[in-house]
Design brief:
This protein has about 325 residues and is of the alpha+beta class. The chain contains twelve helices and twelve strands. It is elongated and about 70 Å long.
Length: about 325
């Protein structure tokens, strides 16, 4: 039983963080997780009969306590996700849910990458954040290839540089994923050596990973300014800590692989103003911290990506 969720619903659910007394919490994403698991449990009928008698079984499937299950079912009923009577739960279709939330529905789903049967899991909804990450990376890949296809001169120069580095040009033309990987490697190498091609790569920016601040801002319901005038604290630090914690939980639950590229360092000090670097005054070098690469524990089917990458040719 593998629960699934559309990329649009996942993006919506991750943005429902609100301040509750002191801390920013997201109660909505837990309810959406329960709805996805109920849909998988109900199967094609989207109907669960005698659900009150089976509440212990259903709570185990949803990996929550019975009291949490009842609370989330009530919330789902209030929001129109389900219809409930004493003995039967009727789950709305994905299309109806998206229509009610005024979200586009493209029938493209992200499937939970790993289900641990009969194993308790505290806060089992972090896979929905992973769905948003996969969707965002696919969007960025699409835009990178789109930029290349619109700028033929830039594309020709970058392909010539890749050819000099020994890249397979046929793969670059036919395999967008291979092309993006080669461009990322060229970006790192050009940063270290300081070649002129680096300025072109800055404009394309062949990196689909986000920083913790970037993810935190995307998952926040309210737009935060950098400085909180009331407390005097940097609000971006709070967003970064929240995203870092979510990454930690995804890794602990075994649903994501997180690779840490670390930093790249160069003796070249003159930089394009669009290249955001830091300066090491002890070594007198410039360096750039690369964002962590986050991917599902299992390979995602490219056909499920919301924005399939166009042909690079």
């Amino acid at each position: 039983m593998q629960p699934k969720i559309t990329y649009q619903l996942a993006a919506w659910a991750t943005q429902q963080r609100f301040k509750n007394t002191v801390y920013n919490t997201n109660a909505v994403i837990g309810a959406v997780d329960t709805f996805s698991r109920l849909k998988a449990f109900a199967g094609v009928t989207s109907c669960i009969k005698t659900w009150r008698k089976r509440k212990a079984e259903i709570a185990q499937v949803c990996k929550v306590s019975q009291s949490t299950l009842f609370r989330r079912i009530n919330w789902l009923q209030q929001q129109g996700f389900i219809n409930k009577d004493y003995s039967t739960l009727t789950l709305k279709s994905w299309h109806n849910v998206h229509e009610q939330l005024q979200l586009p529905y493209t029938k493209q789903f992200f499937t939970h990458p790993l289900i641990k049967e009969n194993e308790k899991e505290k806060q089992p909804f972090y896979w929905i954040y992973l769905a948003e990450i996969v969707d965002n990376k696919s969007r960025q890949d699409y835009m990178i290839i789109k930029k290349l296809n619109k700028n033929h001169n830039v594309k020709a120069d970058l392909l010539a540089a890749l050819q000099q580095q020994g890249a397979d040009m046929q793969q670059c033309s036919n395999n967008p994923a291979y092309l993006l990987n080669q461009l990322q490697a060229l970006y790192i190498q050009s940063f270290v050596v300081g070649t002129e091609i680096h300025d072109l790569l800055i404009a394309i920016r062949p990196d689909n990973n986000r920083s913790c601040v970037g993810m935190g801002k995307a998952w926040q319901s309210e737009t935060k300014s950098r400085l909180n005038r009331t407390t005097g604290k940097n609000e971006y630090d709070r967003l970064a800590m929240q995203a870092s914690y979510i990454k930690k939980k995804m890794k602990q639950q075994g649903i994501a692989i997180i690779q840490r590229p670390g930093t790249i360092e160069s003796e070249i000090r003159g930089r394009n103003k669009e290249c955001h670097v830091m300066y090491n005054k002890h070594n007198k070098t410039t360096f750039q911290a690369l964002c962590d690469d986050i991917a599902p524990i299992q390979t995602v089917n490219p056909a499920n990506l919301q924005f399939p990458i166009p042909n690079a040719a």
